[in-house]
Amino acid sequence: MAQDVLATHGDWTVYSYVESGNKVCYVGSRPAKEEGTFKKRSDAFVLVTLRASGEEVSITSGYPYKDKAVVDVDIGASSFTLFTREAWAWAQNEAGDRELIAAMVRGNNMVVNGQSQIGTTSKDTYSLSGFSAARKAMTEACA
What we know:
- With 143 residues, the protein is of the alpha+beta class.
- The chain has a single domain (29-129), classed as Immunoglobulin-like, CATH 2.60.40.1880.
- Helix content is 17%, strand content 50%.
- Strands 1-2-3-5-6-9-8-7-10-11-4 form an 11-stranded antiparallel β-sheet, with helices on one face.
- A hairpin with a 2-residue loop joins strand 1 and strand 2.
- The longest helix has 13 residues, at 94-106.
């Protein structure tokens, strides 16, 4: 899948690609700080993808999550529990995506805690600087 970089705002980048003839846009960021008991893992990142059904948050900590594990996300005083499947985590439903995105707009940092299949843990801290501007650019690019 070839993707185009449309813009960068703060710590967030706006991308687009074509899927089945339709333009798909998303914003993404990598952790500003990585902590944990892992020795090695792939890249960790957060994506917010704009689809016909709405915006969807997806997170990977760079490893397959422990079976039936959850990922805890903290933004300021707000906490969220995401379900996992293999190496990805998502909100429970569309309302959860909306609540998580609203907190991302209001927040300064987002902390993501996960546990791998082999029991190692990670705590990734993402800067939310530029998230609102990147999200606006994503919406304008794929409207």
